[in-house]
Design goal:
Blueprint lengths: L10 E5 L3 H10 L4 E4 L3 H9 L3 E8 L4 H9 L9 E6 L7 H6 L2 E5 L5 H14 L7 H7 L6 H4 L3
Parallel strand pairs: 1-2, 1-3, 3-4, 4-5
Length: about 150
């Protein structure tokens, strides 16, 4: 029996403020399970649920430094969520800061949405199932079925 806590995470968290990016992401990632958030606090909360593989964050050029500082706290997180940035072409001047914040790739035009979808699809395929807790991982590796799996509660 496959344990639900060992299922691979499959959500993609999206923080998109502009209508152009939001509709483009909805169109190109329609087969994926999208979780939309309104701000960085919502993004952190969704990542903590441990069901996500990737997070797409629209970064306005005016707030790139403050957002990258907040995103740097999520870099190298135990949930292994990959961060992707979307925004304007002027983000190219902030490339070193975005890399330092843990952003895997950034896209500046909705015309690049198919490339973004391909990168996220590769990330979805690369993620292996993981245990939520040490106990559930230990139980799943036992050479015998445990009482809960057999219906002996």
């Amino acid at each position: 029996m496959k344990h639900p806590e060992l299922a691979p995470p499959n959500e993609i968290i999206v923080l998109a403020r502009s209508k152009a990016w939001a509709s483009t992401i909805r169109r190109h990632l329609s087969d994926s399970k999208l979780s939309w958030v309104l701000d960085l606090d919502g993004l952190e909360f969704e990542i903590s649920k441990n069901r996500s593989v990737a997070a797409i964050v629209e970064i306005p050029v005016a707030d790139v430094d403050a957002i990258c500082v907040r995103l740097s706290h999520l870099d190298n997180n135990s949930h292994n969520v990959r961060l992707f940035a979307i925004g304007q072409k002027e983000l190219q001047f902030w490339h070193p800061l975005m890399r330092a914040a843990g952003i895997s790739a950034w896209f500046w035009s909705p015309l690049q949405a198919s490339r973004l979808a391909a990168v996220i699809e590769r990330q979805l395929l690369a993620v292996k199932p993981r245990a939520v807790s040490l106990e559930s991982g230990f139980k799943s590796q036992l050479p015998w079925a445990n009482a809960v799996d057999e219906g002996f509660e």
